[in-house]
User: Which sequence fits this backbone?
């Protein structure tokens, strides 16, 4: 049986992506729910065939924890999915002015900051580990509490108060990676819509390092789709660079650029995969 590990419980955005990805697989496929992103990585490392993790939100940017785990993990990226993200505010009271406590998942909080601020400083904001837990905490609270949950969790009439589309940006989206372990099929991607993700690991920081890296891509006329940095956690001022580029790792121009960069820094290719639309 093929097993997909993802952030649980059932009903999360990660679960939505896992179920959509499951449609592309043959045979018996099960979804295994993990309590944290780190445990999703560990589950795939320990034998699950695939893993689904969020990597980037349209408004909040990259998720630092996932970037850090990619540095040390041996998992490969074989795909990406982009889904719309929509949040609702629910409450046991009928007016937002009566809410005195709000439960919200830590990532969702950043994507609904304007709405949360509009509630006023008297509201106690309680951060939870998942959107489902925010819903559970609210329904189990006897006071005048509310919660921010994914829009697909509820519909008008489910609670005395349901305010839809409270996210800061109407076109809010999150990008997810599909990760594969050693016992999984890792397809080659060579189509025109292919993209490659890699990490330039900073073992030898020196002046001009980033300039040389960018110059190597520029000389080969490679379009960079994303570049971000994360501290190496060894000393201040040292960073790893995460790069997303248009093209496959098998393209001659990509090979030439990476060969040149490899002379001055260590390159870890995370995978080539079809670019999500």
Assistant:
């Amino acid at each position: 049986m093929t097993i997909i590990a993802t952030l649980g419980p059932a009903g999360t955005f990660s679960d939505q992506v896992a179920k959509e990805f499951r449609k592309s697989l043959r045979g018996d496929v099960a979804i295994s729910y993990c309590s944290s992103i780190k445990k999703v990585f560990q589950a795939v490392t320990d034998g699950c065939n695939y893993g689904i993790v969020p990597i980037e939100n349209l408004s909040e940017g990259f998720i630092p924890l996932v970037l850090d785990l990619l540095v040390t993990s041996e998992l490969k990226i074989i795909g990406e999915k982009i889904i719309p993200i929509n949040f609702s505010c629910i409450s046991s009271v009928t007016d937002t002015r009566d809410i005195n406590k709000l439960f919200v998942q830590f990532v969702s909080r950043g994507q609904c900051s304007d709405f949360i601020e509009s509630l006023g400083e008297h509201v106690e904001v309680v951060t939870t580990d998942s959107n489902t837990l925010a819903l559970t905490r609210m329904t189990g609270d006897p006071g005048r509490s509310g919660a921010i949950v994914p829009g697909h969790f509820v519909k008008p009439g489910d609670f005395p108060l349901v305010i839809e589309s409270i996210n800061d940006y109407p076109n809010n989206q999150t990008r997810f990676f599909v990760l594969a372990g050693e016992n999984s099929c890792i397809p080659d991607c060579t189509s025109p819509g292919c993209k490659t993700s890699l990490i330039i690991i900073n073992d030898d920081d020196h002046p001009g390092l980033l300039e040389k890296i960018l110059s190597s891509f520029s000389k080969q006329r490679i379009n960079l789709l994303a570049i971000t940095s994360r501290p190496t956690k060894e000393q201040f001022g040292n960073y790893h660079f995460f790069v997303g580029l248009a093209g496959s790792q098998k393209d001659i121009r990509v090979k030439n650029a990476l060969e040149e960069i490899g002379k001055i820094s260590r390159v870890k290719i995370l995978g080539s995969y079809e670019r999500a639309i």
Q: What stands out?
A: DSSP finds eight helices and 15 strands in the chain. The radius of gyration is 21 Å. The chain has three domains: 2-84+172-180, 87-163, 194-274.
